[in-house]
Amino acid sequence: MRTGQELKELQSLPLNRKVGFTAARITEFFHKTDGKCYVSCSKGKDSLVLLHIARGIYPNIPAVFCDTGLEYPEVRNLPVDNVTVIRPEVSFKAVIEKYGYPVVSKAVAKTIKEARNGVVNAISKLNGTLIHSKTGKLSQFNIPKYKYLLSAPFKISHRCCDELKKKPFKKYEKMTGNHPMTGSMAQESELRKMNWIRLGCNSFKEGREISSPMSFWTEQDVLAYIKIKGINIPSVYGEIICDNGKYSCTGVNRTGCIFCLFGLKYDGPEDRFHKLEKSHPDLYKYCVTVLGLKEVLEYLRKPRPNPTAVKGLDEGGK
Fold first, then answer.
1. Are 121 and 114 in contact (CB under 8 A)?
2. CA angle 258-264-265, nearest 5°?
3. Which strands, in side-by-side order, build the sheet including 83-86?
4. What pLDDT was estimated at residue 29?
5. Rounded to 5 degrees, what are φ and ψ at 210?
6. Mind listing the domains of the chain with CATH numbers?
7. How far is Cα 281 from Cα 258, in angstroms, rounded to an integer?
């Protein structure tokens, strides 16, 4: 079992050593899957870096792009050699109408949905009273600060990614027998950090072999690599500049699904939708009117009072 301290030590390594370690993990995964692998390429900066490193070792390794319909035009139209395009069977509009909006994070959205359905563990998490079964102490998964979402006047769910990304990729994997390499990094979320501690960069669990060979990279590493190697990235990122040793984009910091609300709180005062209104007004109009995000955004941006217990429900869930 790896530790958080080991992750910090890897994250502090110089970029050239990280590239070497990543190349070693790619090679290991390629050989252990007998070459039956592919790069999951969203055409975002992280996956483009991974593809560049992987094809520096295996020039013919395939890339797979899932066209969810939620990408910036600049991302969808970026030319990438030898890429297979897959698509979901349902639209984002259909998903939010059936299941609900993806807000805050997958874990939070899932908890809210379950709490609304009366799942005791979820209620306890929102009350901050869930007890860890082994230690007898309060669980680290308690999230009372998000209890206000229970009274949101719209449906909330974590199912969006499952329907629009996971299902198409699993279908592709079943058809081809290929296993994925992703550009995800532990720095991006607590869940990804825990996955690295539990699995490392490469997991060979039968039936779900997966590689995240850049898990120990940071955002700064990615930007530096792109700048050094001159990798072509979507123009929506703008230019990569370096000020006092720190790299940043003059455009958006992330691409992903442009209508997604996960991680919105980390965007700062001018969030991704403020920027979208300026850069892509037609897309912004579509998302706030047709997709109903205006009401959702207004609710999420409101100041919130201190959380209180969910009345009438057991707080001692196990």
1. yes
2. 170
3. 83-86, 63-66, 37-40, 179-181, 210-211, 202-203
4. 97
5. -150, 145
6. 4-92+160-236 (3.40.50.620), 103-156 (no CATH)
7. 13
- Average pLDDT of 46-61? 98
∠ Cα 78 65 47 (to 5°): 75
**Residues whose CB is less than 8 angstroms from the CB of residue 19 and which lie 6 or more positions away in sequence, other chains included:** 53, 225
| pLDDT for the residue 315 | 34
User: pLDDT tens digits, residue range 191-241?
Assistant: 788 888 888 999 998 778 999 999 999 999 999 999 999 999 999 999 999
CA atoms within 13 Å, Cβ hemisphere of 82: 11
Residue 255, number of CB atoms within 10 A of its CB: 25
Contact 275, 249 (CB under 8 A): no
